[in-house]
Design a protein that fits this description.
The protein is of the alpha+beta class. It contains seven helices and two strands; from the N terminus they run ααααβααβα.
């Protein structure tokens, strides 16, 4: 599986043809890291700009509108409706989940957050703030929240296959759906 998902800087650097340099790759700081052969690292490094070209070949108008919505920069006065305030989001979600749990066939909602060890976009403060929204009180006993920091990752590398995080996430999803993995 290739790291088709990446953030900002990683894709941009590769798109503009920065040469592959294995010495510049972060070293595995954890046993969670997946060992890649030199050939696999080279393949990932060189194929990402090509993938980016195909991704950007079609209209990105919808993606741009989505970003505007997330940034609350649309012409709509209340683009998020009742879900407008992040600080109220968890308690609203818990109320919605409480209503759903009246049906005994519905499982407890599991929410998992994965943070990069070093993230220049949100920093440590952002992850602490996000975690503080998901308290036992606000989750109302109907949401199972957990977060973790992925060692050796950055904002741009957390979805790289070598970090092992994407594989762990896939295993958790498979377990949630009782899929043999």
């Amino acid at each position: 599986m290739l790291p088709v998902l990446q953030f900002s800087g990683g894709v941009i650097e590769k798109t503009f043809g920065i040469d592959y340099n294995p010495a510049s790759e972060p070293k595995a700081e954890s046993s969670d890291f997946v060992s890649l052969t030199e050939d696999e690292r080279r393949l990932e490094w060189y194929i990402n700009p090509e993938l980016t070209k195909y991704i950007a070949a079609e209209s990105v108008r919808g993606a741009s509108d989505e970003v505007l919505l997330l940034l609350k920069r649309t012409n709509c006065s209340q683009p998020w409706g009742l879900w407008d305030d992040s600080d109220d989001y968890v308690s609203r979600l818990a109320a919605q989940e409480t209503a759903l749990l009246a049906d005994k066939d519905v499982a407890l909602l599991k929410v998992r957050a994965y943070y990069a060890a070093s993230d220049n976009m949100i920093g440590k403060q952002g992850s602490r703030w996000f975690d503080s929204l998901w308290t036992t009180e606000t989750c109302g006993g109907v949401i199972d929240f957990a977060s973790r920091t992925c060692p050796g990752t950055t904002h741009d590398s957390i979805l790289d296959r070598k970090s092992g995080m994407l594989n762990q996430w896939a295993v958790e999803v498979a377990k949630a759906y009782a899929i043999a993995y």
